[in-house]
Input
Amino acid sequence: MEKTSLRSQIWSEIKRGYDFVFIKDMPLWAAGIGLGILAILIFLWRYPWGISSGYGNWGEQLYYYLGLGKLAGLKEAPLTPWIHPVSIMNLGMIFGSMGAAMMKGQFTTYRAPGREYVKGFIGGALMGIGSSFANGCIEGGFYTAVGVYSLGGFAMMIGLALGSILGVKYLIWEMLNWPVKIPTQKPVENKKAPMINWNKVYPFIGGAIYISICLSFYVYSAFDKTVLGGMAFFGLWIGFFMQRSRFCLQRTFRNPFMTGDYEMVKAVILSLIIYSAGSAVIKWGFFQPDTHGIDHRFWLGSLVGGFIFGLGMVVAGACASSGLWRAGEGNTKIWLAIVGFITVYPYFKYKVANTALGSFLGKGIYVVDIFTWTWTPVVYLAFFLVWYLLAVYNSKTEKFVISF
Amino acid sequence: MSDLENIKADFLVDCRGLSCPMPILRLKKELKNLKTGQIIEIWSTDPGSKKDMPDFAKKQGEEFLGYVDEEGYTKYLIKKGG
Output
């Protein structure tokens, strides 16, 4: 008697733990901390965290195998997606999000009205152009740039905010003047019960995805590619934190102008405090060179790129990172946004890097070179404080919320 | 949940197939036409709505009554506050 009750006690404790990790809503601040720590680990592991070059790799496949390699300056076949480090991390994110959504019972693919797919594609293409100007998407060009003390991140921030304002204005205009029609769906009559109840099966598939990607680390290691295995592993957990909390960097810039909501602003600030503190330790301690990750085109590239990216992300309904986890969750509009992104990105990236445009758009500037290590932390904290106070003020007064 | 299913809403906003942020924007637009105490029903397929709808309602000072999972979409009920 006692034995079974002990067993059931342990079992219910395990179930509670599983619920906490995989089912219960995760607060945004918790994901902010988790992502800050992951970003530091990735920085130590190899590169500062970015996403767009992984998209670039997918686009290069498209160019190369359609015979358009010249447009992107390709002389030979690009690395296969499972050998390209950032592509691997992006795949890890998609599967991490898919697995998490499946375990939570949130995985659903649904069809969107036709125009939404067009908007997804155009928004994705705009994000691709913006990323090539800024030398990074919202992740690499803003979040990581600020985290590793590259001045371009701040210029991109201004561009992102301005682009978001235009994007929100467009969405409002569209809603009032040219609303997307919702197709009337016929009620399903005497629908047969499906052979397999997928909702019961999904959590097991989700768990299997997590186990396989963790195991892939060992597979990569066996082929002497431990670093690449790590990219898949880190990607998996980025996808986990993002999907579980619905961490969406575009919300940081969009919502203050749409509803005044600033939950994401707080989460990003917290995350960036952790990330920048970690990268300061890494750089100051010479674990990675000072200039590691300082390659954002300050100021014109970051500013203009941020603006184009900001507009694109609002129209598409996702940025580069939330695109990956939303795609993994089954959002079909976002699949088109990814196609749009990879279609234009390799061409523009090549053009910016190999013509006078690149140097015209600016070069990487290291914040610590300007303020020294004495003042940089002070400047950073002051900056975060001002951003936070502005967001709170805006939420209470709705001063910057676009009214309609 | 059975109580929720019996509530008769005054307005309906169908956002099925639309993703974030459109359900919130369309709700914001319709809320302007509501009088205090009237109830609005939103249909959404976006998984994000489960978090966004209550948060937005709270921020605007409306009362979030709850949601019901239907076949293929979720129905949200919000009562206009004063």
User: Anything to note?
Assistant: Chain A has a mean pLDDT of 92.
